[in-house]
Amino acid sequence: QSVLTQPPSASGTPGQRVTISCSGSSSNIGSNTVNWYQQLPGTAPELLIYSNNQRPSGVPDRFSGSKSGTSASLAISGLQSEDEADYYCAAWDDSLNGPVFGGGTKLTVL
Amino acid sequence: QVQLQESGPGLVKPSQTLSLMCTVSGGSISSSVSYWSWIRQHPGKGLEWIGHIYYSGSTYYNPSLKSRVTISVDTSKNQFSLKLSSVTAADTAVYYCVRIYCPSPTCYTNWFDPWGQGTLVTVSS
Fold first, then answer.
1. Which pLDDT value is given to residue B119?
2. What residues of chain A lie within 8 A of the CB of B112, using their CB?
3. Which terminus of chain A faces fewer neighbouring Cβ atoms within 10 Å, N or C?
4. What span, in angstroms and rounded, lies between the C-alpha atoms of B124 and B107?
């Protein structure tokens, strides 16, 4: 049981816009920034979005993040086949004094 | 560009101690803006924080694993390590070493980047 709640799956067709939600509590998302990680099949996770809505260099602007209260979301526009991956949200948890993760969302491009 | 590489046995017997090493290249493990972490991923499952360490030796552990975990750092070798004792099949997972980047002294904002490629550790007799 993950501390942050994500839908287990999401899907879309090429060119569509999809969003993935991440729900937490006041001790994590409510008081700290949210990061998103992309894990392509058979590889290690990679940083996708940091500080709620910032993209590392090299990440296309098709990816965007937002946060409101104790929830966050990742949006992917202009969906491409190479976006098929698992996506994880994460935030620092003040009660744990460490990071917590969502259970991951498997994105399928139909 | 900082890179991390895990090393260690891929097979550990039940009740024994799992030991992994992470070698940091392309940057100093003594960086003031970095903590060094271990994260694991059970087969087909999500990510679990194990713990992290600062170059000074300060450690922070997941309470659920704290009694069995030791993370240490060797600044002279630019390496940090993980020891997990009394392992069972439930500790079978891919283990990642990861940098926690803290752009400010308070580390209020932080993120995991980069990640090592991960190493699968199987606990089995």
1. 98
2. 35, 37, 45, 47, 90, 99
3. N
4. 39
**At a CB cut-off of 8 Å and minimum separation 6, what does A107 contact?**
A9, A10, A11, A12, A18, A20, A76, A83, A84, A85, A86, A87
Omega prior to A14 cis, within 30 of 0: no
User: Given CB atoms, is A50 within the 8 Å cutoff of chain B?
Assistant: yes
Contact between B114 and A47 using a beta-carbon 8 Å cutoff? yes
- How far is it, in rounded angstroms, from Cα B8 to Cα B22? 9
B43 touches chain A (CB under 8 A): no
Q: Are strands B93-101 and B119-123 parallel, antiparallel or unpaired?
A: antiparallel
